């Protein structure tokens, strides 16, 4: 009995930081309609700043000084981000907002590494709260009790702020009807900046509060964001009490889930989210968005590369190995594999209008599916490559069923959460997957162990992917899908089952990604959990955006550019920032990508 | 010629690909009260929204007190003293009555009468009794009073009312008409988009009748009310 | 007499306010029925109840003897009811012909296929010809003037060969001359195919020139029903359109 009680308290203690970060994210979304990916970065900055303050002033008064200073620094950084970046993209499609805030994540990682170094840091116990108290015979850390109290206290203070101040009233008004608030003279720009600062400050405070419990690391930003996405979706976007409820729900499920399924706690959280979303699509305390959400698709028009150009490209690729050296051949194989991955995402985002932040899940399931078959069952390469797309299709069928019930940012957040589940499974189920050590020694059969032979194998797979996706886009299937993206009500009124159409597209995209994943394993000879990580999903997004989301071929251009850029930037220490900078530039200046740039110029000339 | 308070020339506006207004010209002097009439879909509400900068619009001239509005966002236009009372009331349903008024509150200005809380509650005593009630829980008539009071809280120099009579019971309608007439008599400039001729006749002295986004008739309210043939042609089925 | 569509006691409230408060009427086969009424009368809500976008609190909708109350929009389409939209948002990334082809694919439940239907082009041509868009077949939808977007919307609605067509404000947002042209096209289609049309409209010329019968809504209820002439003379209808005319007369 006492043990379960202690476990429940641990859950409550973990809920507090999560709640602070989720409340900030939810608040920002409620008013600005932007999902701030960089929220995890603000949390991380808060934690590092807290460490610095403790270092400067000693444990006492350092620790207690650290909490407000961390909140303040994160708030200022948040304000800077809002004024310099977000303000320029409020009217951009959601996809660009998400990707732009992810670019900030990349830049923040570099800046943090530059200021604070790569080594993990361990904070001191909180002064005055370093002991334990005994409740029901269980030893409970005093600091946990402090954290447990911080949740309701923050909730109360936020309630006071929103119920009792003019600022709070304006924020609530803008959350309910932004346009009407503006028509009454409420200055949106100032309000947005203030809300962003407040939300960022909450994230910073949450980070500082975690210092006595967890190590401060450069990866804590992305580690928390997935969990926070789950919490805001479960609680209802824009609802602060909802965020608190959901934080407690998820933390308790984690605390007790670890007893039942010690290896895959995240699955419990996902199952909870799935149940909540099926019953209440907008979360526990969320409301359906009042205004219809803008369709995520860019709507510039779907461009097509004529068959002639594809055949020309194929001819060049066929003879390329005769001219390229080994290094080039390997690089081009990389481009083809990533190109297939990116094309599958392009199909989902372009004709499908669904922005996925977790497409790596299907690439990774394909890769793991192939590797596991070889490793555990000693299967041959042929079997492994056949199983890869099938496994990915099954995963896409499963997760897709949930994802297509949502749209826009909700869908993007859910895809990310789904990918995190798979990632967590891969890292935690050590007996099956080898955990962080991955699976090694998955080499191609003798025939394809030669670089050139593997090149042609990859090429033939890429050709299959192009044919399938191109045909899918041009066929009645793809048309109906695009129709559902362009005008969902119109499509439904013609008899198109929009969700079903999207579900099938999601599965097809997952299948092709899985094929690419299978190929990837044999190219590298190994697979590690990073193939499932957020970074991998975002890499694909960047490729699609680089090339332009409107054209299938854009994904190939994007993959090529990406691989080359990565190769060049890798020589610099700040390569992530450089990549982030490029993404920001694209999101702000050329939302059509490089292929779109062509159309844009042609249109300008025509006009 | 004296500077007009609100000057509208060549106003074209619409939503997305649809164009609703096809070049309107009219103007209001300080203290004028004008009704925008017409069947539904004629462009009355769109005209009001176009002035407020809430829909896609173009104009050869659109000025308030000499200041061009064409490049200003709604909040800047509101801050110049243009009070907008929206169609379908659009109160903030989760906010209390007092909080709704708080959102509308703007600093006092020298060129317009001030509307402190007490004066608003004197105008609508009903609202005072339910200060702390959530606005979403009020009846349609009470919401209509609130939306007018909320805009007055910004101490406007002109009031743009979009279909204030829509969906109201006759008793409430009279109450709202009387209040708006009082505001007019106190010297507030009014532009009212309205479908009910009776309501418009009580609160406005001039009228512009729209038909398919163009001005079909312009004149005094009295003249229109008296001429039943004209009225039938323009407004009836 | 059995009507094509029979509506009985249809009602829907939002937050305690009755938008549609017990409405009953019928549409005969091959008839053009106009539903009119001042703003806020409940026409749009009524329409959305009929086409499945909203769920009725009570009441019954029967199509040709078959109860279709509470079905989803896409199921209702498959039973033979087409619809056009007040604000036509078409498939902006397609050409005119592609948009119609997509509608045909949907009508033939062909939308999971990877192959184009072989004989589509004849039918596409017919549909475009009916609305006078055959010249525009290969133009991008984004380049169409708004009136043509509405015509395309009509062609798409006709692709499932419906017996009944719901048109919500068919001429809204169009220039005056174009309105007449569109309504003439609709009337010709009705004459040729025996299609029944239920439309809401605020342009009285369109109503009086093209409706066989008119029903009038105010405050969520039907207040009048009859031929165009009857409706024009109905004192109740004049009253809801002109408001408190006695007040207006007192001024004059």
List keywords for this structure.
heterotrimer, A: 607 residues, mainly alpha, ABC transporter involved in vitamin B12 uptake, BtuC, 2 domains, two-stranded antiparallel ribbon, two-stranded antiparallel sheet, 4 strands, globular, disordered C terminus, B: 237 residues, alpha/beta, Rossmann fold, six-stranded mixed sheet, five-stranded antiparallel sheet, 10 helices, 11 strands
Would you give an account of this structure?
- The complex is a heterotrimer of chains A (607), B (237) and C (252).
- Helices cover 75% and strands 2% of the residues of chain A.
- Chain A is mostly helical and 607 residues long.
- Chain A folds into two domains: 13-221, no CATH class; 308-606, ABC transporter involved in vitamin B12 uptake, BtuC, CATH 1.10.3470.
- In chain A, the strands form two sheets. Chain A has a two-stranded antiparallel sheet. Chain A has a two-stranded antiparallel ribbon with strand order 3-4.
- In chain A, strand 1 (132-135) and strand 2 form a beta hairpin.
- Chain B has 237 residues and is of the alpha/beta class.
- Chain B has one domain: 3-Layer(aba) Sandwich (Rossmann fold), CATH 3.40.50.
- Chain B is built from ten helices and eleven strands.
- Chain B has helices spanning 44-52, 74-79, 97-104, 117-123, 125-129, 140-152, 170-185, 197-203, 221-226, 228-235; strands at residues 6-15, 18-28, 33-37, 56-58, 61-64, 67-68, 82-85, 158-162, 189-193, 206-211, 214-220.
- Chain B is globular.
- The model of chain B has no long low-confidence stretch (mean pLDDT 91).
- Chain C has a single domain (30-54, 72-214, 221-251), classed as P-loop containing nucleotide triphosphate hydrolases (Rossmann fold), CATH 3.40.50.
- In chain C, strands 6-7-8-3-9-10 form a six-stranded mixed sheet, sandwiched between helices. A four-stranded antiparallel sheet of chain C has the order 2-1-4-5, covered by helices on one side.
- In chain C, strand 1 and strand 2 (17-27) form a beta hairpin.
- Chain C is globular.
- Chain B binds chain C through residues 14-20, 22, 39-42, 136, 140, 163, 165-167, 170, 195-202, 212, 221-222, 225-227, 231, 235-237, and chain C through 15, 17, 36, 38-40, 87, 89, 146, 149, 169, 172-176, 179, 202-204, 207, 216, 219, 231-232, 237-238, 241-249, 251-252.
């Amino acid at each position: 009995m006492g043990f379960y009680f202690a476990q429940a308290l641990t859950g409550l203690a973990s809920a507090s930081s999560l709640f602070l970060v989720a409340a900030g994210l939810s608040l920002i979304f409620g008013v600005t309609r932007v999902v701030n990916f960089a929220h995890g970065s603000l949390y991380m900055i808060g934690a590092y700043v807290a460490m610095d303050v403790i270092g400067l002033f000693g444990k006492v008064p350092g620790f207690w000084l650290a909490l407000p200073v961390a909140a303040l620094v994160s708030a200022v950084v948040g304000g800077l981000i809002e004024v310099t970046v977000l303000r320029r993209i409020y009217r951009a499609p959601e996809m660009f907002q998400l990707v732009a805030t992810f670019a900030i994540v990349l830049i923040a990682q570099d800046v943090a590494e530059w200021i604070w170094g790569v080594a993990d840091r361990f904070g001191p116990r909180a002064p005055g709260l370093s002991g334990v108290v005994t409740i029901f015979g269980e030893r409970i850390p005093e600091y946990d009790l402090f954290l447990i109290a911080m949740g309701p206290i923050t909730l109360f203070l936020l309630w006071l702020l929103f119920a009792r101040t003019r600022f709070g009233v304006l924020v609530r008004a803008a959350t309910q009807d932004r346009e009407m608030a503006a028509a009454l003279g409420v200055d949106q720009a100032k309000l947005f900046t203030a809300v962003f600062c407040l939300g960022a400050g909450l994230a910073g405070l949450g980070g500082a509060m975690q210092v006595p419990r967890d190590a401060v690391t450069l990866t804590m930003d992305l580690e928390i964001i997935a969990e926070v996405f789950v919490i805001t979706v479960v609680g209802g976007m824009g609802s602060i009490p909802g965020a608190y409820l959901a934080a407690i729900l998820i933390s308790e499920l984690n605390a007790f889930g670890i007893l039942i399924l010690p290896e895959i706690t995240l699955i419990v959280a996902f199952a909870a989210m799935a149940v909540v979303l099926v019953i209440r699509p907008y979360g526990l305390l969320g409301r359906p968005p009042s205004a219809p959400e803008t369709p995520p698709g860019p709507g510039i028009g779907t461009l097509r590369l004529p068959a002639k150009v594809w055949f020309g490209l194929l001819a060049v690729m066929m003879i390329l190995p005769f001219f390229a050296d080994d290094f080039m051949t390997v690089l081009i194989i990389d481009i083809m594999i990533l190109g297939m991955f990116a094309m599958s995402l392009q199909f989902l985002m372009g004709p499908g209008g669904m922005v996925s932040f977790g497409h790596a899940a299907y690439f990774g399931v394909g890769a793991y599916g192939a590797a596991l078959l070889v490793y555990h069952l000693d299967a041959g390469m042929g079997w492994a490559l056949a199983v890869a797309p099938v496994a990915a299709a099954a995963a896409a069928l499963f997760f897709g069923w949930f994802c297509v019930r949502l749209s826009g940012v909700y869908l993007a957040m859910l895809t990310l959460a789904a990918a995190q589940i798979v990632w967590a499974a891969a890292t935690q189920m050590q007996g099956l997957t080898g955990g962080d050590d991955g699976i090694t020694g998955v080499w191609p059969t003798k025939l394809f162990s030669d670089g050139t032979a593997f090149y042609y194998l990859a090429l033939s797979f890429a050709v299959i992917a192009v044919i399938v996706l191109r045909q899918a886009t041009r066929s009645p299937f793809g048309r109906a899908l695009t129709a559902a993206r362009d005008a969902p009500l119109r499509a439904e009124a013609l008899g198109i089952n929009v969700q079903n159409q999207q579900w099938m597209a999601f599965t097809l995209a997952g299948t092709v990604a899985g094929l690419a994943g299978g190929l990837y394993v044999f190219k590298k000879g190994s697979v590690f959990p990073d193939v499932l990580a957020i970074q991998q999903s975002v890499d694909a997004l960047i490729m699609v955006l680089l090339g332009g989301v409107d054209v299938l071929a854009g994904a190939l251009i994007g993959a090529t550019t990406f691989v080359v850029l990565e190769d060049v930037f890798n020589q610099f220490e700040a390569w992530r920032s450089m990549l982030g900078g490029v993404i920001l530039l694209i999101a702000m200046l050329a939302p059509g990508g490089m292929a779109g740039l062509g159309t844009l110029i042609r249109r300008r000339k025509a006009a | 010629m004296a500077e007009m308070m609100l000057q509208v020339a060549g106003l074209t506006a619409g939503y997305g690909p649809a164009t609703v207004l096809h070049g309107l010209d009219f103007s209001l002097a300080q203290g004028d009260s004008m009704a925008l009439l017409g069947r539904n879909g004629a462009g009355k509400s769109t005209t009001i929204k176009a002035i407020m900068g809430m829909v896609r619009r173009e104009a050869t001239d659109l000025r308030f007190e000499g200041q061009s509005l064409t490049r200003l966002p709604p909040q800047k236009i509101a801050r110049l003293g243009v009070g907008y009372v929206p169609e379908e009331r659009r109160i903030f349903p989760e906010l209390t009555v007092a909080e709704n008024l708080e959102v509308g509150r703007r600093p006092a200005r020298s060129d317009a009468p001030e509307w402190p809380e007490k004066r608003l509650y004197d105008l609508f005593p009903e609202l005072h009794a339910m200060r702390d009630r959530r606005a979403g829980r009020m009846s349609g008539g009470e919401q209509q009073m609130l939306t007018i009071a909320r805009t007055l809280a910004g101490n406007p120099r002109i009031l743009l009312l979009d279909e204030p009579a829509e969906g109201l019971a006759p008793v409430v309608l009279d109450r709202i008409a009387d209040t708006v007439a009082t505001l007019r008599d106190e010297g507030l400039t009014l532009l009212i988009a309205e479908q009910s001729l009776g309501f418009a006749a009580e609160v406005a002295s001039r009228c512009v009748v729209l038909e398919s986004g163009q001005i079909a008739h312009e004149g005094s309210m009295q003249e229109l009310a008296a001429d039943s043939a004209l009225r039938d042609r323009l407004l009836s089925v | 007499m059995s009507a094509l569509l029979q509506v009985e006691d249809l009602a829907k409230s939002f937050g305690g306010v009755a938008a549609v408060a017990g409405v009953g009427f019928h549409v005969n086969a091959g008839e053009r029925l106009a539903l009119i009424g001042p703003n806020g009368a409940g026409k749009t809500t009524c329409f959305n109840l009929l086409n499945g976008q909203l769920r009725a609190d009570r009441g019954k909708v029967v199509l040709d003897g078959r109860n279709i109350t509470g079905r989803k929009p896409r199921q209702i389409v498959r039973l033979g009811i087409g619809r056009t939209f007040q604000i036509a948002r078409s498939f902006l990334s397609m050409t005119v012909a592609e948009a119609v082809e997509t509608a045909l694919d949907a009508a033939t439940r062909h939308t999971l296929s990877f192959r184009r239907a072989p004989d589509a082009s004849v039918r596409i041509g017919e549909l475009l010809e009916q609305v006078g868009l055959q010249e525009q077949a290969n133009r991008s939808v984004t380049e169409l003037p708004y009136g043509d977007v509405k015509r395309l919307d009509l062609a798409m609605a006709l692709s499932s060969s419906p017996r009944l067509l719901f048109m919500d404000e068919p001429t809204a947002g169009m220039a005056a001359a174009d309105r007449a042209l569109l309504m003439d096209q609709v009337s010709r289609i009705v004459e040729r195919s025996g299609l029944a049309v239920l439309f809401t409209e605020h342009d009285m010329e369109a109503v009086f020139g093209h409706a066989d019968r008119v029903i009038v809504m105010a405050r969520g209820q039907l207040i009048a029903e009859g031929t165009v002439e009857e409706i024009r003379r109905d004192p109740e209808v004049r009253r809801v359109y002109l408001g408190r005319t006695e007040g207006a007369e007192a001024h004059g």
